[in-house]
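Bench notes, afternoon.
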Amino acid sequence: MVDFVKIYTWSKGIRLIEWLDFTTEVSRKTGEASEFEIAKWNNLNLKSYDNGRLEITGSLHKFANSGFHNHDLFSQQRVVLTINHLCQELRLNPVKCNLVNIEFGLNLGFNNPNEVLRSLISHRNEPFNSQHHGYYRECEKDEYYIKCYNKSQQFNLSRGILRFELKFKRSRQISRFGIKTLSDLTSTHWVSPIINELHKVWCELLFVDRSVIKNSDLHLTSQDYWSPLPKKQRQRQYRKYKKRYGVDLQSKVRDRIRESHQFILQV
């Protein structure tokens, strides 16, 4: 469930870990070395500053899979094991590893992820961007990015996987879930609130199911139709769409998000 993280902490001794290969950037013009050194471990990027500050960025989910992928189930138990392994090997105290950015996402078994991507219109009138590489769409908000992927297409998998995630931009936005450090992620107190947030945001999306829409209503699939409408008129028109078509792909994804709680907390 946890994916990308950006961590700030302090470590004067990390460059002494022999198996880490740190390199220094040097200006070709002046010969002056940068004030930091960089190393990689699986998919994690380690940036060690001369004053002892350490910045870690990358996907914890991919890190748990040796840097290769994030399309399987990343349960809370695996999150704990991954954080313990990371901190033990890098000789870090998880209580002092402050989270600046973080992504939370769910991989949902779904036969037709691209139909879902094509049906995304907006979140509170903020549009989703055009489809990236055929398997990814994103909506940028003030607090977070809303992302939706066809993971099966991204990783050339035979089974259908839809990924829905939120990437929080600032630490103060995740602190309301009781999350400030890596240590907090080893508890379970945040799991239900985060799944509830994913569920809430998904249900707030303006979603027009292209797999069931009739030719007479094709104009509803365009953001150009919805964006100019005043808020109340937009809500009224959307209620009419929902009433006419009933259960659609959005409802099915909503149910999968709700059901995911039991799998994330499985032992």
